[in-house]
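Help needed: design a sequence for this.
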């Protein structure tokens, strides 16, 4: 029988800020953007008592908790702390699947002789994280991913919950059906309208009715509800694309400013591509328009172009994205802009263009990129940037795990 753990840091970003600034300890801390478009990235448990939650608009959080201390946040600092934490996780097993900066699945199957019983191993892991980082981590232990994840949520804050194989159905049955992965608001409402409120009721539902309600996904949802979750812990997943985006604090209509931000995003994407030793052929520009559609929705435009040769050069990525911007024919202010590169291949396998016009210039840029990368690696990210790149001010903190930035 498998033994899986789900480890999740408690209020990670806010806890890091409270650890580093004694003045914040015991106070309601909100990490996220302060502007009208800001979003809560994390809230301390003191703030959560007022109903403040992650992904909530900052304006709403401030209304709920007027005394909250808002902290802009520092993703580089959080990424460094995340790296330290995951080093501790990997002492216990090499099979660690990173879900975000602050949570992971760990496969502890077969480690009993080395680490002892799973509950003891996880308690030791929690002690080591606290001793070395000053931060708390909660954990759930179970034979399947779904149950381990739910158990770690139930163990918060700063606790452990172990669900033995024989206890899985009893643990799942009384929980709301929305706790199943993949059952969102629409599917949940559809099930509830038919009297299916709990996971246990879903598990006992017949196949024909589930197909009628949820299609083929209904059968998979019922299997999860019965604790039948065969998904393995995946230590590494190949990235499909590298991207950067930001929501502006104020709508932007100036094409020159948009091009400057595109260049900044292209620089960041290219740097990450080079760090991971990959290049990409497809460049995508993402634009969210400021024209409201209702219910918090805005028009989204994406434009893509495929290059004949893969690249990791910011100038080429930015040039392609700027051309996509011109083709888009923007006549409406922009709320969000993003640049991504996909159709990846290893840089060592990339096709050379020795006889193509411009190859000499590309060679010079490649050498310059290596020098800039070395300077930034030694003296810190963005120690050296191009003058044409716009400084990117974000309305909200990015929560993405970004390969090539770890």
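Sure. Designed sequence:
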């Amino acid at each position: 029988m498998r033994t899986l753990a789900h480890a999740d840091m408690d209020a990670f970003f806010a806890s890091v800020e409270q650890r580093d600034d004694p003045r914040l300890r015991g106070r309601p801390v909100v990490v996220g953007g302060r502007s009208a478009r800001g979003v809560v990235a994390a809230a301390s448990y003191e703030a959560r008592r007022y109903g403040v939650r992650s992904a909530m608009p900052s304006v709403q959080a401030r209304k709920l908790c007027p005394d909250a201390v808002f902290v802009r946040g520092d993703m580089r600092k959080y990424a460094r702390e995340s790296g330290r934490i995951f080093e501790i996780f990997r002492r216990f097993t090499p099979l660690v699947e990173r879900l975000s900066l602050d949570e992971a699945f760990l496969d502890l199957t077969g480690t009993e002789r080395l680490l002892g019983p799973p509950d003891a191993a996880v308690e030791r892991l929690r002690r080591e994280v606290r001793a070395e980082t000053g931060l708390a981590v909660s954990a759930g232990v179970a034979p399947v991913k779904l149950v381990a994840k739910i158990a770690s949520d139930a163990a918060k804050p700063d606790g452990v919950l172990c669900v033995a194989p024989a206890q899985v159905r009893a643990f799942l049955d009384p929980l709301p059906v929305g706790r199943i992965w993949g059952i969102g608001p629409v599917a949940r409402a559809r099930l509830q309208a038919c009297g299916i409120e709990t996971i246990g009721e879903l598990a006992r539902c017949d196949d024909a009715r589930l197909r009628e309600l949820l299609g083929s996904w209904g059968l998979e949802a019922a299997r999860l509800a019965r604790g039948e979750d065969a998904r393995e812990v995946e230590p590494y997943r190949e990235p499909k694309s590298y991207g950067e985006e930001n929501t502006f604090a104020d709508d932007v209509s100036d094409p020159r400013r948009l091009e400057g931000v595109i260049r900044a995003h292209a620089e960041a994407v290219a740097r990450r591509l080079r760090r991971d030793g990959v290049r990409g052929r497809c460049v995508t520009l993402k634009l969210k328009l400021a024209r409201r559609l209702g219910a918090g929705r805005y028009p989204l435009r994406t434009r893509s172009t495929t290059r004949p040769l893969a690249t990791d050069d910011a100038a080429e990525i930015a040039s392609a994205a700027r051309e996509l911007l011109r083709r888009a024919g923007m006549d409406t202010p922009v709320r969000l802009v993003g640049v991504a590169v996909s159709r990846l291949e290893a840089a060592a396998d990339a096709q050379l263009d020795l006889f193509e016009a411009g190859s000499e210039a590309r060679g010079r840029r490649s050498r310059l990129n290596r020098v800039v990368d070395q300077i930034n690696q030694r003296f810190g990210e963005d120690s050296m940037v191009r003058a044409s790149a716009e400084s990117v001010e974000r309305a909200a903190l990015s929560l993405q795990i970004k390969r090539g930035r770890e």
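The CA atoms of residues 150 and 284 lie 36 Å apart.
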